[in-house]
Amino acid sequence: MQDAFSKNMSELRRARGLSQRKAAADLGISQALLSHYENGAREPGLPFLCRACKYYGVSADYMLGLSDAPAGTAGTEALSGIAAQLRALAERAENALKEQKV
Q1: How would DSSP label each residue in 55-69?
Q2: Which pLDDT score, from 0 to 100, does residue 26 have?
Q3: Rounded CA separation 70/73 (Å)
Q4: What is the CATH number of domain 1-71?
Q5: If you ran DSSP here, which 8-state letter would residue 73 be given?
Q6: 8 Å CB contact between 7 and 45
Q7: Could you tell me where the DSSP H helices lie in 16-73?
Q8: Domain map (residue ranges) of the chain
């Protein structure tokens, strides 16, 4: 997991065209510490992991190498389920209105 975190941190920063100095300042850490995270010399704590995920707009699962989907799929699956429930409810309401008019 450490290797995945280091690799993903570095790739995300580079993909956005950010220098270590800029990303470190935005994340509230020193450039040296960011370099240690990116080369695997240090492991971050949970508060930093959360900040980095928000900063780069990715899930913790992705950042830690547990998922290949940057935004994760749990939120998408939950929204799909809610949408299906809303469609079923709307259909029931429409049918109830039709029955009242007859």
Answers
A1: HHT--HHHHTTS-S-
A2: 96
A3: 9
A4: 1.10.260.40
A5: S
A6: no
A7: 20-27, 31-39, 46-56, 60-63
A8: 1-71, 72-102
